[in-house]
Amino acid sequence: MNPSDLMLTPLLSSTTTSSSGASSDADESPATSHRFIPYKILKTPFSGSSYRSLSVLTGHDGSVSCLAICGEFILSASHGKDIIVWQQPDLRQFTKFGQGDGSVKAVVTAGNKVFSAHQDSRIRVWKVSRSSENIFKLVDTLPTTKDYLGKFMKQSNYVQTRRHHKRLWIEHADSISCLTVYDGLIYSGSWDKTLKVWRISDLKCLESIKAHDDAINSLIASKGIVYSASADGKIKAWGRTDDPKSSHSLKGILEGHKDISINSVVVSDDGTVVYGGGSDGYIMGWLGSKDIDSWKNVCEVKAHKMAILCMCIKGEILCSGSTDTSICIWKREVKGLTKIGVVKGHGGPIKCLQASPNSFGGGFLLYSGSLDKSIRVWWVPQYDEGVNNEDSNCSDPSTGMMKSVQ
What we know:
The protein has one helix and 33 strands. The protein has one helix at residues 145-149, and strands at 6-17, 31-42, 55-57, 64-70, 73-78, 83-87, 92-97, 104-110, 113-118, 123-128, 136-142, 158-162, 165-168, 176-182, 185-190, 194-199, 205-210, 216-222, 225-230, 234-239, 249-255, 262-267, 273-278, 282-288, 295-302, 308-314, 317-322, 326-332, 337-344, 350-355, 363-370, 375-381, 404-405. The strands form nine sheets. It has a four-stranded antiparallel β-sheet, with no helix packed on it. A hairpin with a 4-residue loop joins strand 9 and strand 10 (123-128). 45% of the residues are buried.
């Protein structure tokens, strides 16, 4: 092995200790603390070797359902109704909150607020307590009481959700599966097939869109366009005019394979390429026009043996997580995707992925949450060099496995 292929990088190694958080919730389960130790990381993939996680975080009561990065903190939520805040760089458990409020499906942050979407069809709003910095207080629930009082008297504000049952149009009628934040607004997608738009400043519901013919599974916003992925096999693009009072309208439909569910949607940093991950294990890509008002299919690859549940993008790297318990690492090329690595270690399906916004030792940190109730932290090299670009049209070359060695 050429010595130039090695670089010395501080990585995270975990040791389990008791929680020292001030919150009573945080004292109920052990936290994970970490120290920095030197590791040698291979800069190029080695076929047949294993990729080991840098750290394993445990403490959730149920399967990990979602992850969010907020400054120096990592937020993870679970089907066990709890939300844990992990503080970087040592990834110790900072606090734990949200228990007893329904299974958590999605978490996003906006300013000093945390928004959590729940199986009970509610969105809850949390703020850091003024009396203690590591206690999150529930400050509101969406729809708000003010929103209810302003609408419940008019029959025209009610919509039929199922036979002989009506609700206010500001209410979701089923589990809220996803959230995304963009330009002062929060978008919520639900199993009730609707997309709702909320204003962050006053928490008012502005719109309710009958978006799909089946459950909405994923949302992402980029360059003024909101993309919703659904179990009906479609990704829909929604936008509005420059007038802040204008409503959203349908800008385009990105068709997936027939009779499959699209479980995840992500967009490249420049907003030009949209990727959808399907229940058939395929990743499909669509290239947007210059004005992002039309899209054409440019990529299709069999990424996993089983359903894709989540994806994330970091620059030219796309990561996909699957029911098959693996994470695939892809290099984004002009003509498609090239597989450059496979990450294994979880004991259950990969439900959520988040990439660190900052670079780390020539790569980035990847956080994965699984139905095995754990969160794992991985180091992923950027692969700016050494990737075969000649066969990149969504090709599936022999798997390049990444390795970390002491």
